[in-house]
Amino acid sequence: MSQNDIKIFIDFFHGACLKIRKEKPVFQRGKDGKLVKNALRTFSRTQLEMLAVWFLAKKHKLAPAIGTMFSKKLLEELEKKIKSPSFWKELDEIFEKHYPRQISLIELKNSNDTAKRK
Question: From what superkingdom does this record's organism come (predicted)?
Fold first, then answer.
């Protein structure tokens, strides 16, 4: 985990909020960075990004804020849901809806096989 990971996640959260909710997120300078730093001790940046997309897509009634995303009540809910295989499938579908892959894995494999033949 680095300062760069914290900044990258906060930038991602900002962009995801605009993309998914069509509104600007609410940031609290200093506090949000500390919350992200603590979360990065448990999750990778990529995992946090996926959880942020889930939060923004599923919790419309909650404020679009990192502090809200990392609230005790929401983290308890996530802790329970993470244990369910259906949660990960749902998370994958939500992420794919908002951030579709630019290239399919099959296309990637085929281009790799073609490159090996040359």
Answer: Bacteria
Return the closest-CA partner of residue 39 out of 64, 88, 15, 75.
Answer: 75
Q: Model-level pTM? A: 0.79
The values of phi and psi at residue 93, to 5°, are -65, -45
Helices (H), 22-104: 31-39, 45-58, 66-69, 72-82, 85-98
Note the pLDDT tens digit of each residue in 79-112: 888 888 898 888 888 988 888 876 555 555 565 5
Which whole-number Å values give the CA distances from 87 to 6, 58, 81, in the listed order? 25, 12, 6
